[in-house]
Design goal:
Number of helices: 6
Number of domains: 1
CATH topology: Rossmann fold
CATH class: Alpha Beta
Order of helices and strands: EHEHHEEHHEHE
Radius of gyration: 15 Å
Bound molecules: adenosine-5'-triphosphate, magnesium ion
Distance between the termini: 40 Å
Strand content: 15-25%
Length: about 160
């Protein structure tokens, strides 16, 4: 059963995405089965994986969240999990920001990501969730789904 680790901080540009990326590949190098989830509409982790145009990806985490909001059937994992050099990932795109505003109006919406990740737990040792720099409904979803949190903090020498 996978341990779900969310990488978060309300501050921008502190290395959440870089830490998610490095942690995912470090664990994969140790022989672990890793799924990285880009849970930020900026889609920086998605581009780290080499996806040039996240907006053109047919099924992203935003689509999966929208599916759950509308009580639609989840697609097969083969339709939304991509793989690069031994690490699986679920891409993101700007579409996730549309989900963010819808989530605010739904009761019990903090468990939408949990519902997406729970069926995938059996397939991985670690699921790493990269989040956006705010304490909105998306970050609350990531906190609810996670077993553990990683809070990166870059400190320059003049700080
Ligand atoms: N350990 C590090 N040391 C120095 N620079 C770093 C380190 N980790 C990341 N960076 C650089 O800091 C910048 C911000 O990193 P990153 O995109 O991972 O931050 P983030 O917290 O995900 O940002 P955002 O809040 O916008 O999602 C990038 O240019 C990245 O290359
Ligand atoms: Mg980031």
């Amino acid at each position: 059963m996978a341990r779900i680790i969310m990488c978060g901080s309300f501050k921008g540009g502190v290395g959440k995405t870089a830490s998610s990326w490095n942690l995912a590949y470090s664990l994969a190098e140790m022989g672990k089965r890793v799924l990285a989830v880009d849970f930020d509409s900026q889609a920086n982790l998605t581009t780290c994986f080499g996806v040039e145009d996240p907006a053109a990806v047919p099924v992203t985490i935003g689509h999966l969240m929208m599916n759950r909001l509308e009580d639609e059937k989840m697609p097969d994992p083969s339709e939304f999990i991509q793989s690069r050099n031994g690490v699986d990932f679920i891409p993101s795109s700007m579409m996730l920001s549309a989900v963010d505003s819808k989530l605010r109006m739904e009761m019990g919406s903090e468990k939408m990501l949990t519902g997406i990740l729970e069926p995938l737990r059996g397939l991985y040792d670690y699921i790493i969730v990269d989040t956006c720099p705010s304490l909105g409904t998306l970050t609350i979803n990531a906190l609810t789904a996670a077993d553990e949190g990683l809070l990166p903090s870059i400190r320059s020498f003049w700080q």
